[in-house]
Amino acid sequence: MYSPDTMNVRRFCVSVLIAIPMAVPWSLAGVPGARAATPPESDIPGIPLPAPVVTGQLGGPIYDVVYSVKVPAGYVLVAGLAGTPGTDFDLYLFDSSATTVLSNTGLLTKSTGPTSSEQVSWATRTGGTFYVDLNGASNVEGTYTLSMQIVPDSTPPTASLHVAGSATVVNTPAVPLQLAGFDDLSNVTEMSLSNDGVIWTTPAPLESQFTWTLPAGDGLKTVWARVMNGVGLWSKPVSVTVTLDTTSPTALSFYPPDRAVVALPRPVISVVFSEPIDDASWANLGLILQSPTGGIWPGTYAYYPTTRTGTFTPSSDLLPGYVYFATIGNVQDLAGNKVAGAASWTLSYVPASSVTAFVLPHVSVVGTRVTLSGTATLPVGASLNLEARTGAAADYAPVGSIVPSDGRYSLQLTPAMNTYYRVSYAGSAVARPASAQAAAIVRRTVSLTGVGASVTYAAKLGRSVALRAQIAPPGVTKVSFRLYRYDAVRRGWVYAGSYGRTTQADGLASLVWTPRAAGTWYWRVVVYPTPEFANNISPVYRYRVSR
């Protein structure tokens, strides 16, 4: 009887068709003893293989030709079959448990293509007797050539092991591995794995891709693998290392900080992470900047591995005065762990304003008009506040407002004493505050009364000369009367001494000078500085002293 998966079912159907015109011979197939005349090579045990290469007839009325062959342990049987063009021959290999080619019992492998070019290869670890069945699969008879080699396999296979996707870091102990084995003769049939290279799993059929569970605990892990070929030889162990990381990264810091007010319309927003991250996850909306209406602001992303820093730069200007919300997106580390505890923070863009201030002349005599001027970059229609701090005053006092024109301003002032001007813009929702300061340094006037600077006065040796200095504005302060003598030998003026005095409330200070030597002299009066006024010096007042 033939089962549906019996190898000769096709050949059997052909034999029935042939049997109809022949009638008698094949109609006796079920009669006891009908196969007595069947040639011995037509079924197991067949005949011993006489030579490495044999030829004969197959097909048509010749269904099977069976050869037996003994194969030592650790050897490989390699058989190739070729037939006359137009024939269809198949090739089957059985082990010693087989008793007939009409059953699948003991069938090891087969080659049943639609042509007569067939081949099988089989490695044996234990050796034994094998049966090679040449089957004529059609009613076309032809010549076959069988080439069979029995060769030892003493070369171990080789193996290669990889993490699927070439991952170097994973976030779960169950890691997908890819194992490949190669053997030059007897094929790779089994594999074994280890977590330490010492204790191995029981050999199992080779799989090219499978899941392996790493030992518990984060850190560097090594997986070992080896493969076995058909004759039982193991390859050298191979390994692959991978880091198990189940800890989520965190954002250590971000800039600008929460509630920051930035001065640039396209600020660079940066986040520093606790460990390296997948730059692709950062580039894919790793940071989301939203406007007050909820819209996601476009921008460009960059990641710097050495500092574990991701940056985002808006590609269009932020709108002044509005609050924007920054949030870390689906950022992952190299193992695929998502950033934990990523909060949102806010920032707003308020453009910088600018103000400059200058006083000319910077130093002047009391009563002189000065010009306060400068530049101002402000929102349209905004004005400046003008304040002044005079003398020793600690605080500024309001003076008035200034409306710039085309980004500039200028006004004239008459400071009564040393005055420090502050020009400022208070700021607004759309512009930052700005201020500038400038000082007007004021000197008192100082002179000798009753004499003129363009006249040389006569004086007598030993006779007193009264000198009176007038300081304006008046007030009690320190002055110095300074005397100089002309040295004819040196041809220059030589300092001859100074005399300090304190002025009265009316600003007057007096000195009596009694010349002790004839010659040409001159006096000058210096007023010392105070918080209200800078120092000053009078003109030169000349005297010619005679005997």
Written account of the structure:
The protein has about 550 residues and is mostly beta strands. The protein has five domains: about 10-150, Jelly Rolls (Sandwich); about 160-245, Immunoglobulins (Immunoglobulin-like, Sandwich), CATH 2.60.40.10; about 265-330 and about 340-350, Sandwich (Immunoglobulin-like), CATH 2.60.40; about 355-445, Sandwich (Immunoglobulin-like), CATH 2.60.40.10; about 445-545, Immunoglobulin-like (Sandwich). The protein has three helices and 43 strands. Strands 36, 38, 39, 41, 42 and 43 form a six-stranded mixed beta sheet that branches. A five-stranded mixed beta sheet has the order 1-3-8-5-6, with no helix packed on it. Strand 38 and strand 39 form a beta hairpin. The longest helix is centred in the first third of the chain and has 14 residues, at about 10-20. The chain starts with 8 loop residues before the first helix and ends with a strand. The model is unreliable at about 1-35 (pLDDT under 50).
Distance between the termini: 168 Å
What is the typical, i.e. mean, pLDDT? 91
If you compute it from the alpha carbons, what radius of gyration comes out, rounded to the nearest whole angstrom? Answer: 56 Å
Number of strands: 43
Helix content range: under 10%
